[in-house]
Amino acid sequence: MCGRYNIIPDTETWPREFSLSAGSVSRIDTMKPNYNVCPSADIPIVRYDPGSRQMELSLAHWGLVPSWSKQRSVAYRMINARAESAAEKPAYRESFRWRRCVIPANGFFEWERSTGSGSKQPYLVTLQAGTVFGFAGLWDCWKDPGDDGSLISCTILTTCANSLMQNIHDRMPVILARAHYSKWLDPVSRDSGALLRPYSSKRMRVSAVSPYVNNPRNNNARCIQTLEGQGIHG
User: Fold this and answer.
1) Which pLDDT score, from 0 to 100, does residue 117 have?
2) Helix runs in the chain, H state only
3) Catalytic residue chosen out of the listed positions 17, 110, 154, 223
4) Which of 1, 70, 75, 71 shows the shortest CA–CA distance to 43?
5) Are 86 and 184 in contact (CB under 8 A)?
6) Bridge partners, residue 125, by sequence
7) DSSP state, residue 20
8) Beta-ladder partners of 173
9) What single string gives the DSSP state of each residue in 117-154?
10) Where are the domains of the chain?
11) Of the listed 2, 101, 154, 223, which one is catalytic?
12) Which residues contact 173 (CB under 8 A, 6 or more apart)?
């Protein structure tokens, strides 16, 4: 699963990594680092705009609200969607077909339950290269039946854990290779589901971090400070 992650916007690397439009580049300057992204936060997503034929960066509520839903409150239960069944599930089916997105991240958190004390040890999962990457996501637009307002929301797709993540959890978010962003975002692509597989363990790093990150109110660089000598290796 993926219930927490971190984002550090970068005007130098993001435009190149996600092939962003000029207008989207200017939006990065308005975004602040979020070291402890929690469900219900407004997070940056990358979508393909068929009108301009460019990659556009926008904000979306983390926790998908299907367009047909009568209540916004379902969002917290829909921060993740299983990649294996999203194409068939009513809540995600239309989004999987027409409304895919890439969600920028610098790392994500997962918790391993200690066998002795019963406490949970948090881990930060990043790429070996230390670079930004993209989760495979879905988005939708919900209109509030009580007024004229609308809500853009999203969910992160998950898959089975790779050999590195299995030491902590049996699920992990789908991390897309940079070369696959365009194919994933293209609704015409019929075999996009083949991209939703576990990321290579050899390209990932898992490092223990302080329980400080457990508190969702804590949001600073301390959340991603690793504990020396307490990583997990595949």
Assistant:
1) 63
2) 13-18, 22-28, 93-98, 181-185
3) 110
4) 75
5) no
6) 108, 206
7) B
8) 158
9) T-PEEEEEEEETT---EEEEEEEEEEE-TTSS-EEEEE
10) 4-113+132-200
11) 2
12) 1, 2, 5, 80, 108, 135, 136, 156, 157, 158, 159
* Residue 56: active-site member: no
* Residue 205 and residue 233 in contact, taking contact as beta carbons nearer than 8 Å: no
User: Tell me, what's the pLDDT at 116?
Assistant: 63
Residue 12 designated active-site: no
- For 127-177, the pLDDT digits (tens) are 999 999 999 999 999 998 777 689 999 999 999 999 999 989 999 999 999
185: confidence class by pLDDT, cuts 50, 70, 90: very high
Confidence of residue 234 (pLDDT cuts 50, 70, 90): very low
The conformational region for residue 87 under phi > 0 = left, psi -120 to 50 = alpha, else beta, is alpha
CA distance 228 to 234: 17
Tokens 């495979």 locate to: 136
CATH of domain 4-113+132-200: 3.90.1680.10
Residue 90 in this model has a pLDDT that exceeds 90? yes
